[in-house]
Specification:
alpha/beta, 7-stranded mixed β-sheet, 15 helices
């Protein structure tokens, strides 16, 4: 008998982690960080509800931290198996985890200085650089659509998810005596309107389906309407002389934004002459994307031709800001620039400095182009309920114009999720809705139930057998 235990991204969109157990093996699907409020992030410090030494393998859907960010902790606590992932995720995982451990060690050092002065107990980092290095040696890349036996009687195949470079829909086939069961895990299912990546692959058969529900309660605005709003925002900022500040995820969202800005520039509607990419990680991620243009779609022949030459060939005026000194220089620009920086939910990184220096300016524009989890600074800005925000120790008046561009999301919306799942043949798989806040999952559940396909929303710790 095979069982699956839901350990993360249940009732929330972070901390993706699921434990698959057969009679002889234990496999983790993802091992991600919990992100958001301080209360949410405290879950990262808890011991795993299983013995990491007993895990034979990890199957990773993609390299975003909410799916991979606790892998070094898994190693620190005794895991010695292999980590199976797509070939494009191979370099991205290294990029993400090296950056994550650097930020974590820095934050722990700062917090411990404060605690030492107060006579409080010092904190230990979640993991160290050595744990990241050990984890990276365990990576095993697998090509899209290749059937790979990862353990006796268990095969995995990865299929394009269209979310970020290397993202995958995971299909596991588990042979138990004379019977084979199929588990499909959507991972983060991409928006088919993505300008760079191919559409999510269509799968038609499964016994159990784990489906994300990030945007399960809404449809994105029409893409052209969103692009019109982006053009109008850029033109308005050009006339008023203010900066345009865009918090962006380093992997995926940043590259989409550069693409669209290049398109708008070619239409003669980009007044800003200087576009700063103020994120060393986003710069490195963009280089990895440029090395993998073979995985892009071919919807735009002009871009397909220029893409291998690099992003700065596509978007004139794109300036890479890598060092701290270069970033501080960008802070001194009072208007006329586009500044793209991380983190995507404004929880840390250089974006907080740019918000500190621009959020109070009436002629500035803040463009929110991605999902903002509960408890994050980005979510607070989107909700618009606070006139003043405390950022980096300063109280900042929220005077800039805030724009939310939902259609640029890298996640499928409600209609797209329903359409993708509709391809599964009868008998329909047992359906579990994961990776969504409660309201989003409940709304999507109602939609499926109306069609006669019963969807379950599991709780953390729930266990099923099949």
């Amino acid at each position: 008998m095979t069982s699956l235990t839901f350990l993360g991204a249940t009732g929330q969109v972070t901390g993706s982690c699921y434990l698959l157990e057969t009679g002889t093996h234990r496999i983790l699907l993802d091992c991600g960080l919990f992100q958001g409020s301080k209360e949410t992030e405290k879950q990262n410090e808890a011991e795993f509800p299983f013995n990491p030494r007993s895990i034979d393998a990890v199957v990773l859907s993609h390299a975003h931290l909410d799916h991979c960010g606790r892998l070094p902790k898994l190693v620190k606590d005794g895991f010695k198996g292999r980590v199976f992932l797509t070939k494009a995720s191979f370099p991205l995982l290294e990029l993400m985890l090296r950056d994550a451990v650097h930020l974590q060690l820095r934050d722990t050092e700062w917090e411990n200085k404060r605690r030492q002065r107060a006579g409080k107990k010092l904190l230990e980092p979640l993991y160290e650089l050595d744990d990241v290095e050990t984890l990276l040696k365990l990576r095993q890349p697998v090509a899209y659509s290749e059937e790979k036996e990862i353990l006796a009687g268990i095969t995995v195949s990865f299929h394009e998810a269209g979310h970020i470079l290397g993202s995958s829909i995971v299909r596991l086939r588990i042979k138990d005596h004379d019977e084979t069961k199929t588990l499909v895990f959507s991972g983060d299912l991409g928006n088919p309107k993505s300008p760079l990546l191919r559409d999510p692959a269509i799968l038609t058969e499964a016994d159990v389906l784990l489906l994300e529900s990030t945007y399960g309660d809404r449809d994105h605005k029409p893409l052209e309407n969103t692009l019109d709003e982006l053009r109008e925002t850029l033109e308005e900022a050009g006339k008023s002389g203010g900066n345009v500040i865009i918090p962006a995820f380093a992997v995926g969202r940043t590259q989409d934004l550069i693409y669209w800005l290049g398109k708008i520039q070619r239409q003669g509607r980009l007044p800003q002459q200087q576009i700063y990419l103020d994120s060393p990680m986003a710069i490195s991620a963009s280089e990895i994307y440029a090395d993998n243009t073979r995985l892009f779609n071919i919807d735009d022949p002009e871009f397909t031709k220029i893409a291998p030459q690099g992003w700065q060939a596509w978007l004139k005026g794109l300036i890479y800001s890598e060092t701290a000194e270069e970033s501080m220089a960008v802070n001194r620009i009072t208007g006329g620039a586009i500044i793209i920086a991380g983190s995507g939910m404004c929880t840390g990184g250089r974006i907080r400095h740019h918000l500190k220096y621009n959020l109070w300016r009436r002629n500035a524009h803040i463009i929110i182009a991605g999902f903002q989890a509960e408890g994050t600074l980005g979510r607070t800005i989107v909700d618009g309920r606070k006139k003043y925000l405390k950022i980096l120790g300063s109280e900042i008046n929220v005077a800039a114009k805030i724009h939310t561009l939902g259609a640029l999301s890298a996640h499928a919306d409600q209609s797209q999720l329903l359409a993708w799942a509709s391809h599964f043949k009868a008998p329909k798989p047992r359906l579990y809705l994961i990776h969504g806040e409660k309201t989003a999952a409940l709304s999507l559940q109602t939609c499926f139930n109306r069609t006669g396909w019963n969807a379950t929303i599991p709780k953390a710790g729930d266990r099923i057998t099949f």
